[in-house]
Design a protein that fits this description.
single chain, alpha/beta, Rossmann fold, eight-stranded mixed beta sheet, 10 helices, about 35% helix
């Protein structure tokens, strides 16, 4: 399977590394151009390209950019593709987005509105980048770390659940994109090491208009 990655920050690079280790062909991109990614590509062993090239390349495409950048995503190339949305809303970085501040939609619904026809799945957003390569364990490991995901396309979610498992995590289906607020930034499950039962418990505890203190999930 081929994976295209849009964004070469901490999350994008971690996803690229795990994908290569799992046997994927990988192409990574950023907003500054492929010529700025040569050292990253050499370290990971992946290809580099433009955002459009990475989107066209992947059977599955990971979006790992600041949320404010979603309007620049190559919608045409992503039509029909399984797209993994790893993005989180940080107003101090992204600027205030009224529909999110008013809880009128989720971050993934906002992105899906731009990516018409993409098979969007919210996943890999509720884990710190530094935990990607250290917390994954084989299937069946007692108390294996679990991560939530959400989406409106059942088949796409099944593919993403398989990727989560390959990368060392149990997948917990949190429902549709409209319910993905339960594991957005500052919710009880966000970036906390939990097994499947713990994730389910924290998802149930979440309240739409209640956030944890800023940065409390950083360790």
């Amino acid at each position: 399977m081929k994976m295209g990655i849009l964004g070469a920050g901490f999350i994008g690079r971690a996803m690229a590394t795990l994908a290569k280790q799992s046997g994927y062909e990988v192409m990574i991109s950023n907003s500054r151009g492929p010529e700025t990614l040569m050292s990253t590509a050499a370290a990971i062993g992946c290809r580099v390209g433009t955002a459009r090239e990475a989107a066209a390349f992947g059977d599955v495409v990971v979006v790992a950019v600041p949320l404010r950048s979603y309007p620049a995503l190559p919608a045409a190339e992503l039509e029909g593709k399984i797209v993994i949305d790893t993005c989180n809303y940080y107003p101090d970085r992204d600027g205030h987005i009224d529909v999110l501040d008013q809880y009128a939609m989720t971050t993934s619904e906002l992105m899906a509105g731009h990516l018409h026809g993409a098979r969007l799945v919210k996943a890999f957003n509720a884990i710190l980048a530094k935990d990607f390569e250290t917390d994954g364990t084989p299937a069946g490991t007692p108390h294996r770390r679990a991560l939530p995901m959400a989406g409106d396309d059942l088949a796409a979610k099944q593919v993403v659940a398989g990727i989560l498992d390959q990368f060392g995590f149990d997948a917990v289906d949190a429902g549709s994109l409209s319910g993905s607020w339960r594991f957005e930034r500052a919710k009880p499950v966000y970036c906390v090491r939990l097994n499947r039962a713990g994730v389910l418990e924290k998802l149930a505890e979440a309240k739409r208009d209640v956030e944890l203190p800023h940065g409390s999930w950083r360790r």
